[in-house]
Amino acid sequence: MKSDLKNYLSITKKEWNGVIVLVVLIVLVVSAPYVYKAFRKDKTINFAQIDSLVKLMPKVKTTDSTKLNLPSKLTFFNPNQLSDSGWMKLGLNAHQAKMIKHYEEKGGTFKTKQDVKKIYAISAEDYKRLEPYINLPGGETVPAIIDINHADSATVTTLKGVGPAFAMRIIRYRDKLGGFHAKTQLKEVFGIDEEHYLLIKDAVKINANAIKKTNINKATFEDLRRYPYLSYKQINAIIQYRSEHGDYDNFDDLKDVAILDEATLKKIKPYLVFK
């Protein structure tokens, strides 16, 4: 048994040489960092020398315009005649200039200084800085306020960003409703998004007395179908409830029609009468 164990533990000369080489490599790897440090010393930083050099450098006065990359001197400008680079020369960034040009492409123009302030890309600080230099030839004009419930399509086209196609859509939607009771209803017209609405909202007014109302107790299916707020099922439910329970006395009676939700009732309320 001892002989077997001895044979198991014995190694050849070739294997022994391999072990020696492996041990030597391990020693070299472990000791390498220490040998490197022994022969190479890091240079120490002389902070006193750096401080003396800094004192010799000329002092640069930093102003707000250099911090914000603003022009040192502004000149008078017409906002309707500026290119992207022109706006950037006034201290605006490329994104702001792009938003302004997008506004103009939509049909927007600057008729008053306040119109520049309405561009959401221009901050209050930007406007305060630029306002004294805005120059609109011929002086500022006050845009006419249009009664959107009486205006014809030609008059509607005078609104910012509204061409003949948009004007016809506004007129058709107004006639379908029987008139607008709130400015925000303009956003219900196909193609008029929030951006278009902001362009025109201050140039229109609403005459609620011009609204054509419907007597809910005499209305037929066709009378109610013109309202975009009501579905066919809701119209049928209104008429069916009236047939079963008699005329509606007031608006609260409509709340008993289960299929009419609060949001729909709020939209149709301005267009209904009960006597």
From TrEMBL:
GO terms for cellular component: type II protein secretion system complex. GO terms for biological process: protein secretion by the type II secretion system. InterPro entries: Endo/Exo/Phosphatase_dom_1 (IPR051675), RuvA_2-like (IPR010994). This is Helix-hairpin-helix domain-containing protein. It comes from Mucilaginibacter ginkgonis.
